[in-house]
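Quick note —
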Amino acid sequence: MDSPEREILRRITRRTFFKEVGYGIGGLALTSMLSEPVLAALQEQARTDPFAPKPPHFKARAKAVIYLFMAGAPSQLDMFDGKPTLVKYDGQDCPEELLKGERFAFIRGKPRLLGSPYKFDKVGQSGHQISELLPHLKEVADDIAIVRSMHTEQFNHAPAQIFMNTGFQLPGRPSMGSWLTYGLGSDNADLPGFVVLLSGINNPDGGKSCWGSGFLPTVYQGVEFRSKGDAVLFVSDPDGVSREIRRDTLDAIRDLNRLRLDSVGDPEIETRIAQYEMAYRMQTSVPELMDIAKEPAEVHELYGTEPGKASFANNCLLARRLVQRGVRFVQLYHRGWDHHGTSADSDIREGLSTMCRQTDRAAAALVKDLKRLGLLDDVIVVWSGEFGRTPINEGRGGSPYPGRDHHPKAFTLWMAGGGIKPGVAIGATDELGYSIVEDPVSVNDLHATILHLMGLDHTRLTYKHMGRNFRLTDVSGSVVEKLLA
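Predicted structure written out below.
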């Protein structure tokens, strides 16, 4: 994806010395090292729009992604992967062979099996197995693909969430949304290419690292929109500042930034220019976007939205409005799925059922609405947490409430639209839901598949940093062919 001129620019800007002395001797020495045509090419490229649409590696199946991230790790065993054998042996000691050499986050002592209290049905022509917790999702069963064989390398929330979003467990790597906007640009010049919407209890454990740009230019990081109050903080003009004054101010700042950019070639200055201009355009585009009250009554009934309130339902409707306007990647984080059973509201009965009521209707409505508008073929919808839950009751401190510990070995997600084969089920776990026995899918495999559907070869979408080419999938990952329509 990089031109020779851009690569020269990056090699230069990694050296802090040259960056800092751009107005002095170092800047003169650097200029003398490069020919005038190369300098002219660098300067011209620095002025280009970083969000301008870019061609994919091959014909894309999808144009945008909506990622519904259920932060806290939903219990797949109570929602998508019913196990009659686990129910049969509920409360009995866990087999020793499952425990040998295993590490758990919180389980101590002699663990016991925990069967699901929920009824599972096979629904639709697909025969997807979905629990009674998700009545609305059952209505779109034939439109979704379910992957029951996901696995991850991390078993604590923050590193697992960062890993699920960036392909690496530590902060500092670009998120998938950042990679996609870097690789493809955006189809709307008046909105960010990557938007983040938050709901539920607090923020995700992984924090802003989940939607950061890492070592990519910061223009590609996710921009948080709020569904209540000002959508974007500090984007409004202060009292007494007219649009004309704001335009004149930005023009002056832009000219000063370009002088500095011409001198030192730092791509972060290019980012600064682009973000100032984007913020100015967003003052007009965002209020119209966020005004969901203008949607028809039947749409609000479908999603369960309440204009003016912060909710997962409102964010799902906003996500649809964003992709309609050409935004490349929209990610919704809904936190509160951490059901260890330490209290009544954090167990798999009251706690889990509450979270399903908050999200099931709107998530299914998003699929229905995209299909109704003819957008589902162009938009990938992903629903996932960061890892799964054990078939073992945690019982921390002798708690009487049923709860499950962290389980990286197996979890479930679903996908729809954008080249995903509808109605297919991928993978399987053993009779207790502990280990994968068929078609394992890694986080890197998931990332490779999403990039593929967007027209990008995950091995070719790279960025040179600290002397080597990095990619979202690092050194592994394969496209899950069974998921493709």
